[in-house]
């Protein structure tokens, strides 16, 4: 098992603040409740610390208020402690009636939830309702957590339904808090007119609390030519690549194939590009030792995008190797947290990848939503029928070799293919991922400067979630979600379909879960309603967590196939209509506006 890493970005990781709220009446009432109330806080802290980790692998830290909170003075002291301790998410717990608006968390930027104990001896649920009403009236949305079954006053356990909501909220809240104050680094400009690479700083500032940093691609040329990278690490990386990255067949016509000497130079260039883009994102103290103090700082980028096409790739090797390796959970230095790096500087797909990564701590797959194959079309070109999960049709997810190698599906959980957090991946699984991938000389029809694209076939049987952020003029950002599965196709069907596009790029065959209505009426409708050419693919069915996250940020979800019972949004949403309605979500988000208003 890999060691947990240090946090590579500037600033400390946000903690979860636990607020034990109590009936402030002295002389018997408060005193009788102190133990139970503080016990709830400690139980929640233990649950979260045991079950949640930061993206660098370390357990999530919780901070409990010094005392129970019976009034505004103690609420203020707790807020001061939380600010000092770096709390980014707050959870209030209580078994009893308390003074609603006097005890609530008033910080508008901190995601907040309240667990009101379901017991008959004291009215914890009454406080929950009163406090949520205060939150809603003040425009400070909070998530209400109320157990389905009545508990006895002395019961110190957390019911399973309460646990699920606490964990779902905490994952989403931490993702929001981790993004705040970080950067998106745009390396280059707009790639081939792709809308997602028209980077919108207002979106990042107002909705995510992030800033946008811009670096021209010529900076890579400068750093390569002036050797502004760690040459010792470069030699180590190049040796690792030669040993572990198998070169596949050259798909170019013989007249356009590069010489071995040219290909060797291109390998050297793409390895240097990888080091340099990583250094641009998070800095590198080694550069300071070499005298490059400014370059050593980096841009504190939690996500980035590389334009590549076409101004770079018409002359220099493409970014496929760099993107695939940085997005993976490992490289020549061993296992580590993936970097989020979008192909073609598609900042909106980078955000979807970032959401998935922060909710799961796993590597993300960047893909084109390339083709819908109907059962009839497959039978026409292959003479074979699709069966099993694929029987209603499939969506071909494929991009120019930039997908994380974790996407091979060569890792496993309980014997089934999976994508795991880096600290759970074994050396044997790393080798399997590398062995399942081949690196092919780039098709020079597309990439005149050469380079290498990774090719692999994702194993079927993985539960995955496809997501995407789009921006619509007059509306703002919207989120699309499609839960489904990767599928295996018979070898001959896969061969015929894959050869019709680019067989030297990574392929994932995806089947969404259908609901029989709307965008999920059939597989064709999912493809037909997808709002852009790219999607992020995350391991697991995390649609509910994405909906919770989007509600905190006030980004409406325009398309999803998540069952109603898994949807968890702030209680204010209930005032705008049915909880599972798309219209309700739009009205609530529009009414509240983006989390950070007009920006940080």
Characterization of this structure:
- There is one protein chain.
- By secondary structure, the chain is an alpha/beta fold.
- It folds into two domains: 15-179, Rossmann fold, CATH 3.40.50.1070; 183-592, L-fucose/L-arabinose isomerase, C-terminal (L-fucose Isomerase, Chain A, domain 3, Alpha-Beta Barrel).
- It is 36% helix and 19% strand.
- The chain is built from 19 helices and 22 strands.
- The strands form six sheets. The chain has a six-stranded antiparallel barrel with strand order 12-13-20-19-18-21, surrounded by four helices. Strands 2-1-3-4-5 form a five-stranded parallel sheet, with helices on both faces.
- α5 (160-179) crosses α13 (347-360), α5 crosses α18 (543-553) and α8 (231-244) crosses α9 (260-282).
- The longest helix is centred in the first third of the chain and has 23 residues, at 29-51.
- It is globular and about 90 Å long.
- It starts with 14 loop residues before the first strand and ends in an 8-residue tail after the last helix.
- The model has no long low-confidence stretch (mean pLDDT 95).
């Amino acid at each position: 098992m890999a060691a947990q890493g240090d946090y590579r970005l500037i600033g400390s990781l946000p903690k979860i603040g636990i607020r034990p709220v109590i009936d402030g009446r002295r002389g018997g009432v408060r005193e009788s409740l102190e133990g139970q109330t503080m016990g709830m806080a400690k139980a929640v802290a233990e649950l979260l610390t045991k079950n949640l980790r930061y993206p660098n692998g370390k357990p999530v830290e919780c901070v409990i208020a010094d005392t129970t909170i019976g009034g505004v003075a103690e609420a203020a002291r707790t807020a001061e402690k939380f600010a000092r301790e770096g709390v980014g998410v707050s959870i209030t717990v209580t078994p009893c009636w308390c003074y609603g608006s006097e005890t609530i968390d008033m910080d508008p930027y901190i995601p907040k939830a309240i667990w009101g104990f379901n017991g008959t001896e004291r009215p914890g649920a009454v406080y929950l309702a009163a406090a949520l009403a205060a939150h809603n009236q003040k425009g400070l949305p909070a998530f209400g957590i109320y157990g389905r079954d009545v508990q006895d006053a002395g019961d110190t356990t957390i019911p399973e339904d309460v646990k699920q909501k606490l964990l779902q909220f905490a994952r989403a809240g931490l993702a929001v808090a981790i993004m705040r104050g970080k950067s998106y680094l745009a390396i280059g400009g707009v790639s081939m007119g792709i809308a997602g690479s028209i980077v919108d700083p207002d979106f990042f500032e107002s909705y995510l609390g992030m800033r946008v940093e811009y670096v021209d691609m010529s900076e890579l040329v400068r750093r390569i030519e002036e050797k502004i990278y760690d040459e010792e690490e470069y030699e180590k990386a190049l040796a690792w690549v030669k040993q572990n990255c198998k070169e596949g067949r050259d798909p170019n016509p013989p007249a356009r194939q590069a010489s071995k000497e040219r290909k060797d130079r291109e390998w050297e260039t793409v390895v240097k590009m990888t080091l340099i883009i990583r250094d641009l994102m998070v800095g590198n103290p080694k550069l300071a030792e070499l005298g490059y103090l400014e370059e050593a700082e980096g841009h504190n980028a939690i996500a980035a995008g590389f334009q590549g096409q076409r101004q770079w790739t018409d002359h220099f090797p493409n970014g496929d190797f760099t993107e695939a390796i940085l997005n993976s959970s490992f490289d020549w230095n061993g296992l580590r947290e993936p970097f989020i790096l979008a192909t073609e500087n598609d900042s909106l797909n980078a955000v979807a990848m970032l959401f998935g990564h922060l909710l799961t701590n796993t590597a993300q797959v960047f893909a084109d939503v390339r083709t819908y194959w109907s059962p009839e079309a497959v039978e026409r070109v292959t003479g074979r029928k699709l069966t099993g999960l694929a029987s209603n049709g499939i969506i071909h997810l494929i991009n120019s070799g930039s997908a994380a190698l974790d996407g091979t599906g060569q890792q496993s959980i309980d014997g089934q293919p999976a994508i795991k957090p880096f600290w759970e991946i074994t050396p044997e699984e790393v080798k399997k991922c590398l062995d399942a991938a081949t690196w092919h000389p780039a098709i020079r029809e597309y990439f005149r400067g050469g380079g290498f694209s990774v090719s692999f076939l994702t194993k079927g049987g993985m539960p995955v979630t496809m997501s995407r952020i789009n921006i619509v003029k007059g509306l703002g950002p919207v989120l699309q979600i499609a839960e489904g599965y990767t599928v295996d196709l018979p070898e001959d069907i896969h061969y015929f379909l894959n050869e019709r596009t680019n067989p030297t790029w990574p392929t994932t065959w995806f089947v969404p879960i259908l609901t029989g209505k709307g965008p999920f009426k059939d597989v064709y409708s999912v493809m037909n309603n997808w709002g852009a050419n790219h999607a992020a693919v995350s391991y697991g069915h995390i649609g509910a967590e994405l909906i919770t996250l989007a509600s905190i940020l006030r980004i409406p979800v325009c398309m999803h196939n998540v069952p109603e019972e898994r949807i968890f949004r702030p209680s204010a949403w209930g005032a705008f209509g049915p909880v599972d309605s798309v219209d309700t979500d739009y009205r609530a988000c529009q009414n509240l506006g983006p989390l950070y208003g007009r920006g940080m």
